[in-house]
Amino acid sequence: MTRPDSLQTLLSLVPPEHGADEQVDWAAAEEALGTRLPSDYRAFMAVYGAGSFGELDILGPLPVEYPQWDPGSIVADTPQLRMLCAEEAGPLAPAIDAAAVLAWGTGCNANELGWLTVDEDPDRWPVVAWRRQIAWNDSHVAVFDCGMTDFLVRMMRAEFDTCPLGDASLWGKTAPFVHWREQQRRWQAGLCPETGEPDPVIQGFLQWPDS
């Protein structure tokens, strides 16, 4: 399921210039989640860390202390994704066990991404997506027979038959990756978290006494 070269391909598409080793305590993460996590995700956390490709947030495994806003985590975001998957029913929806879903990504206009933990080997977990924006005859839930980094590569290269999300901001395109700590540092400096350019709206907000 997880292609061994997918992370290297992703690195060639989006260099981790603003990434950082998340320095995850994997024993604590496994204890909190009750499972091991895929090897490509673990390698991703050591190179990029948690953060964003444009509007798509990649979650770290555990909650963290933060200076400005909660960047989210697998632990914190999984209940919401499970609820969304459990609510999806009907002939068009794939038959999945919502309790077997673990979140790993969120954003791109309120789309949610996770793994379907259907195998004892995490490297064989497929990706499950909950899409807010869908065609009238489609399901909000879709399952993709690939791992996390392979999903990102195939989306950015437009290698699926159609855009896998209800948002095309990364469909056939790339966006710089920015670690969540760098995003928050930029915001506190009055800069756009995504681009690092001065942002008059943020600067004006920071000037308010209660900000």
Which descriptors apply to this entry?
31% helix, globular, 211 residues, 7-stranded antiparallel β-sheet, single chain
- How large is the share of residues in beta strands? 5-15%
Number of helices: 7
- State the end-to-end distance: 46 Å
Low-confidence parts: none
Which class of secondary structure composition applies to the elements?
alpha+beta
**What is the general shape?**
globular
Instruction: Tell me the helix content.
Output: 25-40%
**Total number of strands:** 7
User: Could you spell the SSE succession in H and E letters?
Assistant: HHHEEHEEEEHEHH
The order of strands across the largest sheet is: 6-5-4-3-2-1-7
Largest sheet properties: 7 strands, antiparallel
- Radius of gyration, in angstroms, nearest whole number: 17 Å
**What is the overall pLDDT average?**
93
Structure, explained:
The protein is of the alpha+beta class and 211 residues long. It has helices spanning 6-13, 26-33, 39-47, 74-87, 148-156, 180-188, 200-207, and strands at 51-53, 56-58, 101-107, 111-116, 127-130, 141-144, 177-179. It has a 7-stranded antiparallel beta sheet with strand order 6-5-4-3-2-1-7. The longest helix has 14 residues, at 74-87. It is globular, with a radius of gyration of 17 Å. It starts with 5 loop residues before the first helix and ends with a helix.
Concise structural overview:
With 211 residues, the chain is α+β, with helices and mostly antiparallel strands. It is 31% helix and 14% strand. The longest helix is centred in the middle third of the chain and has 14 residues, at 74-87.
